Amino acid sequence: MQPSMRMHVALRVPPPTASFSPKSGALASKKVLLPTLAWLGATWAVGLYVSKQLHQKSDTFDRIFAQQNTPEVEEARKRDLSVETYGDPRNSLLNILGWTK
Questions:
Q1: pLDDT in tens, 72-81
Q2: CA nearest to 97, candidates 54, 45, 64
Q3: Out of the domains of life, which is the source (predicted)?
């Protein structure tokens, strides 16, 4: 055989084929997509429920405290909680119920 023919034989080898078909790729994406959507939906529902409950409790506490909010009560609260020294606890990052106000 001539050297040039050997090269042509080597070039006729077909390229390797992909190991998956388009159907299996689409099926795999559905297997990932549905649980992801279910998880996102459940997370959104729980977040909405917790937010609703926090707003409801916050409104209830606001109504109760509005009835007791007199100048004498405010002065006693400032004195007892040392608001001038430590700051107002109503403005603290830990006051979750006051975040929306």
A1: 988 888 888 8
A2: 54
A3: Eukaryota
Q: What letter represents residue 75's amino acid? A: E
What is the DSSP secondary-structure string of 20-40? S-HHHHHHHHHHHHHHHHHHH
Q: What is the DSSP string of 62-76?
A: HHHHHHH--HHHHHH
CA 98 from chain center: how many Å? 21
* Digit-coded pLDDT (tens) for 5-37: 555 555 666 666 655 555 556 666 778 888 999
- Say how far apart CA 52 and CA 48 lie, in whole Å: 6
- CA–CA distance, 15 with 17 (Å, rounded to integer): 6
The answer to whether 61 and 97 are in contact (CB under 8 A) is yes
How far apart (Å, rounded) are the C-alpha atoms in residues 4 and 89? Answer: 88
**Half-sphere exposure of 59 toward its Cβ, with a 13 Å CA cutoff?**
6
